[in-house]
Amino acid sequence: MSAEDTTGAGSESTASAKTANSVERALRQRIDTFVAGWRSGLAEGWDAARASVLHEELEGIAAAADAQNLTELAEPAMELTVFLCSFVESSAMPSPVQRQSLDAMIERLGGMVAKPVAKGSRRAAPVASVRGVVHYLRPPGREIEALPPFLGSQRFLVRPFEDPDGVVMAFSEGTPDLLLVDDAFVPQLHAVLDAATRAREAQREPPLCVVLSEVDEVARVLFAQRAGADAVISSRDPVAILARIEEALEQRRSLGYRVLVVEDDPWQAKFCESILHHRGISTQVVGDAAGVVSAVQSFHPDLVLLDFYLPDGNGIEVAQAIRAEPGYAFLPVVFLSGEQDLDKRFDAISMGGDDFLTKPVKPRHLLMTVESRVRRARALGHSQATSRGERRGILSGRDSFLQELERTPNVSPETCAALVYLAVDNVDAIRDRIGFVAGSTLAQQLAAALAAEVPVARPLCAYGEFAFLGIAREVDELALRDALQKARERLAARTWLSAEEGLKLGFTLVAQRIATTSKPDALIRRVRQLGITAQAAGGNRSEFDLRDPAAASEDPRVRLVRAVLRGPADARTTVLDFQPLVPLAGQLTGQYVVRLRLQPPKSSQPISIEAAEYLPIARDQGLLGALDRRLARSALAQLRAAAVPADQLRLYLSLSAESLLDAAFAPWLAAELRAHSVAPNALALEFHSADLIEHQPGDASIEALQRVGARLCLHVDDDSEGTQHWLSHAAFGLVRFARPVPPPDGTLKGSPWSLVANRFAGAKALGKTVVAEGVVDMLDISELLRSGAHYAHGIALCDWMTDFNFDFAHAVL
After folding, report:
1. Running DSSP on this structure, what letter comes out for residue 499?
2. Residues 628-687 pLDDT 10s
3. Distances from the Cα of 697 to the Cαs of 126, 505, 662, 691, in angstroms?
4. Which of 151-155, 164-168, 236-240, 313-317 has the highest mean pLDDT?
5. Of 466, 468, 383, which is closest to residue 429 (Cα–Cα)?
6. Whole-prediction pTM
7. Left (φ > 0), alpha (ψ -120 to 50) or beta: where does 788 sit?
8. Pairing, β 309-310 against β 313-314
9. Backbone φ, ψ for residue 677 (5° rounding)
10. 276 Cβ contact partners less than 8 Å away, ≥ 6 residues apart
11. Which has the closest alpha carbon to 700: 666, 724, 734, 652?
C-alpha cells in the first residue's frame, strides 16, 4: 500500500470516529432534553398525555442508542421504556411506589449523560429496580426482626404495620404486590383483602397474601386459607420465607409465555430479549436457520420472532419448516425486518407468518404484538394443539400427560399421589350465557388458575370443555385431601372473566390415588366417570378415593405412629415425662431429663407409644426432624406454663442429628423460644455420639445452634475413637453417660459405674459437666460419688414425673 493510500485510509478512519462521536453527543443531548422535560412536566404530578409524548421520544432514544451499540445508554433507556409502557398503554396512574421506581430510572438515565463512560472502562452498576411492594402486618413485639432488612436486600420495599386499619388506609396510596400477615390477624384477614380488592387498580391482580404462622398445624393453616391466604409459612427463617414467597409469586405470574428469538444480529437479539424479560417472558435465541426447528422442539415456544434474512436462509423457508412440524401448525410466527417492500411483507405473511414488525422495533409494539398473538393462538388453536400432544404454556397434550402419569408411582413412592379431575359444573348454561369468544378466555383463565391455586404438578391437561386432568402429590392422604378441597373452594369463591362480568362457577373435583398397578387409561376413565356421576348428583363437591392398596398389609402400629407424628402436636397426642438430675458434685437444681411418649387422640383405651417403638418408625418414615420439633415445642409450652421461674429450670431434650444438619432448625428454635418467652439457657440440646459419628455435622451447623443460646450435651454409651473425637469438641459442655453394661460372666462385684471412672476423669479434665444416666441402686450412687460425677438420675433417685415438683432441697443420697 502506498503512503497516499495509507493516508487516505487514516483520514477515513478519523472521519468515521468523528461521525460516531458526533452521533453520540447528539444522542446524549436528546437524553438530557428528555430528562429535563420529564422533571419539568411530570415531577409534581402525573399527566397521561405528557407521559405518552415522552414515551414516544424515549422509544426513539433507546432504538438509536442500540443501533450505535451504546449499551451504557441503551440499557437504562430500554428499561425505562418497558416500565413506562404499561402506564401509557392502559392510561393508568402509577402509585407512589411506582413513581419512586420511575424517578430512580430517570435519575439513572440522567446520570449516564452527566458522566459519559469512557471506552474500555467499566460501566457503573445499574440501579436495581424495586421487585415489589410488601405490606407487613404484625402485632407489636411479634415482628421477625431480620425479615424486613433481608427482603429489602432482595429489592423488596417493605412497609410495616401494627394494626389492620393502618394497612387498609395505606391502600388508598396503592395496593402492594405482597401482603405479609402474622397469624394473630387472621380473623381480620378477609376484611383486609376485601379492602385491597376494592382499592386496587383495574389492571392489577390482588396482592399475594402470605400468612406467617408460628405453629405448623393443619387446623390453623386451613383457617388462614379460608380467610383468603394464598400461602401459610410456619418458618421464622427469612431465607425460607423468601423462598416460599418467590415460589408463590412464580405461581401468580401471567401465563408463562415463551418466545424463541431467531436473529443473527446479537445486538438486536439482546434488545428484544431485554424488552421481553422486563415483562416476565422467557426467551431463547437462535442465530441461524439451521437450528430453528430443533430449538422449537426443545424449547416449546408460544411464539417465534423470526428475522426475515438469515445468513443460511430466509425467514419464509424457516416459517414453512416450522409449520411442517407435527403440533406446530398454530404456533405464531412474527417476522422482524427492515424490509420496506410491501409485496415482500405480504408474501412473508401469506407463506406462514402471522405478523410483521419493522426494524428498529419499538418496545411497545413488540410487547403488544407478542402478547396479543400468544393470547389469540391459545384461545383459537388450543384444541388442535393438545390433540397432537403439543405443550403450549401451562397445558400439555394428552401424550405428554399419559407419559407423566405412567412414571408417577416411581417418582415419589413415599408420598400420596393422585390423578385429579376438575370440571366446571353446568357447562351448557355457562356457554350459552358468555358465548364462544368469552368461553375461550374463560378456558385460558381456568388453566392459569389451576396451575396457580391447585396443588397439581405439571403437566396439566385439558380433558373436555372446561375440564382438566392433573397429578397431585402430598405427604399423606389427609394432607392431599385438605389441599385439594381447599383449592376447589378457592376456585368456587373467585369471580371469573372480569369484575364487571361477575361470573361465579361451581366445580366438581375427583381425586383417585395412583398406585404402582394403576393403568393410566383405566384410571382416567374412572375419575371422569366419578366426576360425571358427582355432577349429575348436583355437582359443586369433591370425591376422593385415596386409599393405599399397600396399607392393608402394613403393621397397624406403624400406621398409628405415622398418623400421630404427621398430625398436630398437642396434649392429646404428646405426653412429656420428667426425671430430675440430682446434684452430686454439682450445684444446680431444677434440671430435668425429658422423655416423650405418643398416644392416639381418639383411642377407645389408653395407649402409650414409647421411644423404643416410635423412633425406628420415625427414622424409616423420615420424620425425625418433625419429632424433634414436636418435643421442643411441647417442652417450651411446659416451661411457659410452669409455676417455677424460668431461670430455675433446665430441660434436657434428646434430638436427632437430622435437626443439627437442618439449616432451618436453629432459626426455628430461636423463634419458638422468643414466642414462648423462654430463656435459651433453659434448654440443653442433647445429641447421641453414635448419631454424630454417622452424620458428621460440620462446625457451621453446630455454631448455628450455639448462637441460639441453648447448652449442648453429648450422650455417650461407648469409648470408641469417634466418641472421643466428639467428647473433646468444645461445643459440648455437658456429657451424659449411659449406665455401663456389666460383664456377662458375673465377675464384677461392685457397680458397673466403676468401669468408666477414668472416662469421667477425662471428661472433667476437658472442663465438661458429667451427668450419669440410669442409677438403679445405692451401689451406683456410692460409686458415682467416688467418681466425681456432677449429676445423676434414675429410678433409685426418683421415678419419672409428669411435672416439675421434685424437692431438690430434701433429696437424700
Report:
1. T
2. 999 999 999 888 888 666 568 899 999 999 898 888 788 888 878 887 888 899 999 999
3. 40, 53, 10, 10
4. 164-168
5. 466
6. 0.41
7. left
8. antiparallel
9. 55, 45
10. 259, 261, 283, 366, 367, 370
11. 666
